[in-house]
Amino acid sequence: MSLVVAFDLDMTLIDTVPGVAGTLTALGGELGVDLPVAELTARLGPPLDVLLDGHLPAEVMASAVDRFRELYVDHAIHSVTTLDGAVESIAAVRRHGGRVVVVTGKYEPNARRHVEHLALDVDHVTGLVVGAGKAEVLVREGASLLVGDHVHDVEGARAAGITSVSVLTGGCSEEELVEAGTDVVLADLTVFPAWLDAFVATQEPLGV
Fold it and tell me: What string of H, E and C letters represents the secondary structure of the chain?
């Protein structure tokens, strides 16, 4: 079986804080609500309705989420950049003949917009999957490891029975990620290529 590496998107491959902050500010302006943008963007990862719970009335949540996704296109795609080591990490997977999949809780059309705008060398994108919900995609795509920044990503890897690699570029601490059951904690993706080289070297050769 060939190598398939799955990556989370927000705060793993790309720094979405500026884009989400800009979109939340625009949304709050439209709704006449003073959203605590800095607080909300400090720990990105949960679904948007969970993130906004307690800040917006329940009866407007669904429409607010839809409007956020619309506003996101103008306020986030061009302001978001890759995190250090992201491009090199994808290239490292390619060097080993592997496939790259993105499995994210983000609204899929906007996830694809990021991938296309940043020209990320990705084979497959699935959006709107969080936590253990990522397992079905991971198994279907034959992923052998999931790289993410949040405890929800650890949950997804555990549910799929694959290796969980966590980076500290998101809102979760090393202690939280270890407690969630991650297999590996890396400071960021700049050290992932070397880690992947070592990981691949420990695997049995194909056909053995």
Answer: CCCEEEECCECCCEECHHHHHHHHHHHHHHHCCCCCHHHHCCCCCCCHHHHCECCECHHHHHHHHHHHHHHHHHHCCCCCEECCCHHHHHHHHHHCCCEEEEECCCCHHHHHHHHHHCCCCCCEEECCCCHHHHHHHHHHHCCCEEEECCHHHHHHHHHHCCEEEEECCCCCCHHHHHHHCCCEEECCHHHHHHHHHHHHHHCCCCCC
